């Protein structure tokens, strides 16, 4: 990765063999990454690494004034072409076979129970190794299986009990494991199964305190979902696929954690030369998780009966959680991505099983805006 690509002033980041401060220590308390609500209060682990990042709220008010900039025609054209690609992808999945003669992939996979004490996530030893993990990760060379069986139809999360939500989302994690364990294993990483915990207004985890949200906590490698999220984010209660897209996005962060992408991006963001550069790195993480969510939805679309008419609603989920949608500022300098950007990457995933297509870390800056 070149210095120009990330835009840091010369000499501000120690590359080469110099390790980031505190790497390899215990108690890594990285922040959670969610779809809505308040930003968790982050804890400082030993060594000073993984502490609070400036300007990384969860869809909260930006810390910088929005900048005026014109629409990017190339990005808009890309959205059109990718929407067509996703349509073709879902048509192929749903039209080639009937439900009675579908040959589901990885159907003999035995889903493991949730792992409450997973092994530590992979840690790069240097900033140079972190950059290499982001750009040339072995995970990018893999392909997600398709079609994959998922016997976990969507539920109405707006009026579901906590028990119903927990059953549904833990059932979805079984489907996510069936899709993602083969490519993660093929890339020579481990994928322990995270649990899903349902909570109310706030919760305190190893990542600190969080308000209404859905998030993955890298400190314990588990997923959390607030039962108030459907009220906080309207599309979650009005679109039957939205909650599953949210959970697939959070599992995408689990994939990033287990393949070294998550900690590498945050190490470089913490050491970035500017808040703008730091935000761009976090946006690359978030939009990549959107792409992973799209790949998953494509893989299970046949067994779940996702129709072509459902595609717009799935894409609208990504739009609904864009930085500009949440803040009402069309050119906000956020840390999750504008609506059109999040739709761009979610749609990319919907149209492919090639995990390398989700490599947001080599994408042009305008595609992660």
UniProtKB/TrEMBL annotation:
<feature type="transmembrane region" description="Helical">
    <location>
        <begin position="75"/>
        <end position="96"/>
    </location>
</feature>
<protein>
    <recommendedName>
        <fullName>Neutral zinc metallopeptidase</fullName>
    </recommendedName>
</protein>
<feature type="region of interest" description="Disordered">
    <location>
        <begin position="1"/>
        <end position="67"/>
    </location>
</feature>
<dbReference type="Pfam" id="PF04228">
    <property type="entry name" value="Zn_peptidase"/>
</dbReference>
<keyword id="KW-0472">Membrane</keyword>
<keyword id="KW-0812">Transmembrane</keyword>
<dbReference type="InterPro" id="IPR007343">
    <property type="entry name" value="Uncharacterised_pept_Zn_put"/>
</dbReference>
<feature type="compositionally biased region" description="Low complexity">
    <location>
        <begin position="29"/>
        <end position="46"/>
    </location>
</feature>
<keyword id="KW-1133">Transmembrane helix</keyword>
């Amino acid at each position: 990765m070149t210095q120009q690509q990330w835009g840091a002033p010369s000499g501000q980041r120690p590359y080469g063999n110099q390790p980031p401060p505190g790497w390899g220590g215990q108690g890594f308390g990285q922040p959670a990454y969610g779809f809505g609500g308040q930003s968790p209060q982050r804890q400082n682990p030993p060594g000073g690494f993984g502490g609070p990042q400036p300007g990384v709220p969860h869809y909260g008010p930006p810390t910088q004034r929005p900048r005026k900039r014109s629409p990017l025609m190339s990005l808009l054209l890309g959205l059109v072409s990718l929407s067509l690609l996703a349509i073709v992808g879902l048509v192929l999945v749903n039209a080639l076979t009937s439900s009675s003669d579908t040959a589901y992939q990885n159907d003999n996979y035995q889903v493991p129970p949730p792992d409450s004490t997973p092994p530590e996530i992979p840690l790069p030893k240097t900033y140079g190794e972190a950059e290499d993990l982001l750009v040339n990760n072995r995970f990018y060379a893999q392909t997600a299986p398709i079609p994959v069986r998922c016997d976990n139809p969507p539920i109405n999360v707006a009026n579901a009990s906590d028990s119903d939500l927990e059953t549904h989302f833990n059932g979805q994690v079984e489907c996510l494991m069936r899709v993602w364990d083969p490519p993660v294993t093929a890339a020579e990483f481990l994928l322990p199964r995270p649990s899903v915990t349902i909570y109310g207004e706030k919760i305190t985890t190893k990542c600190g305190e969080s308000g209404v949200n859905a998030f993955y906590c890298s400190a314990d490698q588990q997923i959390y979902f607030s039962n108030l999220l459907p009220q906080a984010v309207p599309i979650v209660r009005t679109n039957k696929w939205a909650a599953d897209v949210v959970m697939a996005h959070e599992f995408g962060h689990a994939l990033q954690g287990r393949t070294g992408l998550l900690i590498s991006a945050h190490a470089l963001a913490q050491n970035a030369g500017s808040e703008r550069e730091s935000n761009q790195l976090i946006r690359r993480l978030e939009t990549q998780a959107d792409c992973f969510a799209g790949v998953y939805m494509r893989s299970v679309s046949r067994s779940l009966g996702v129709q072509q008419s459902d595609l717009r609603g799935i894409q609208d989920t990504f739009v609904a959680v864009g930085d500009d949608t949440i803040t009402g500022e069309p050119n906000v300098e956020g840390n999750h991505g504008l609506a059109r950007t999040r739709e761009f990457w979610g749609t990319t995933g919907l149209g492919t099983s090639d995990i390398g297509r989700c490599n947001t870390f080599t994408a042009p800056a305008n595609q992660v805006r």
